[in-house]
Amino acid sequence: MSEELTWLPAWRIRELIGKREVSCVEVTEHFLGRIEEFNPTLRAFEEVDHAGAREQARRADRAVAGGDVLGPLHGIPTSVKSHIRVEGLHYVQPGTDVVSTFDDICVERLRRAGAIIIGTNTMMGAGADLTLARDRPGVFSPFNWDAEALSPWDTTRVPGWSSSGGAAAAAARLLPVTIGSDGGGSTRLPAAYSGVVGLHTSRGLIPHVNYDKPTMLLTASYGPLARYVRDAALSLS
């Protein structure tokens, strides 16, 4: 079953969890293992919350055992772009690198749907300047290709614009679904370059508040990156 999980879509993994044919802990450990194996090369993740993911998976299994009503993403590991706030994880914005004290709205909704938040994904382009600014607080860092995600299809190339880490993670099957953001192609371009589904959702479909860049509310939206259309739809449900 372990190797099979690599190739299964999120909706099928969710079915197996509901039927108790695989546990949330097994699913989480499988994808943590893939991240550990391939992320040093692909650099798709900014931060991986091993302990937090395992605790979420144990709670998810207790819900299954207790006969609780399960959400559409129950037990499905996912990650979000590193400028999306996840409580307890680093949050990257211009000149800052702080630990977030709360979840963004989309992360709250993912948790309510049962998703396991495994970590945050690296960014490039405009996002790269934010990521790399951590070593120089208060200023933008020069662009550095060596710090960004690489394409799982060709590691001499990059996987697109700023949601690149999420696209690389989905394409390499490090996770079934990831969440990016898009104000000018930041999800759509990495999806196209990486051979995955990427949605620039209608503004307001997934509420978000960008305290650091309120103007982004006018153009940007959050949306899924996944290998299957059905998985992208599932993450929006």
* Distance N to C terminus: 27 Å
Q: What's the level 1 CATH class?
A: Alpha Beta
Side-by-side strand order of the widest sheet: 1-5-2-6-8-7
Question: Low-confidence parts, pLDDT < 50 over ≥5 residues?
Answer: 127-146
Just name the CATH architecture: Alpha-Beta Complex
Alpha carbon gyration radius: 17 Å
Structural class: alpha/beta
| CATH fold topology | Amidase signature (AS) enzymes
How much β-strand is present in the residues? 15-25%
Could you tell me the mean pLDDT?
85
GO molecular function: catalytic activity
Family: Belongs to the amidase family.
Protein name: Amidase
Pfam families: Amidase (PF01425)
Descriptive notes:
With 237 residues, this protein is an alpha/beta fold. The chain has one domain: Alpha-Beta Complex (Amidase signature (AS) enzymes), CATH 3.90.1300. Helix content is 37%, strand content 16%. It contains nine helices and eight strands. It has helices at residues 2-7, 10-18, 24-42, 50-65, 105-112, 126-132, 164-171, 188-194, 229-236, and strands at 45-48, 77-81, 90-93, 96-99, 116-121, 177-182, 197-198, 221-226. The strands form two sheets. It has a six-stranded mixed sheet, sandwiched between helices. It has a two-stranded antiparallel sheet with strand order 3-4. The longest helix is centred in the first third of the chain and has 19 residues, at 24-42. InterPro entries: Amidase, Amidase_dom, AS_sf. This is Amidase. Residues 26-236 form the Amidase domain. GO terms for molecular function: catalytic activity. Belongs to the amidase family.
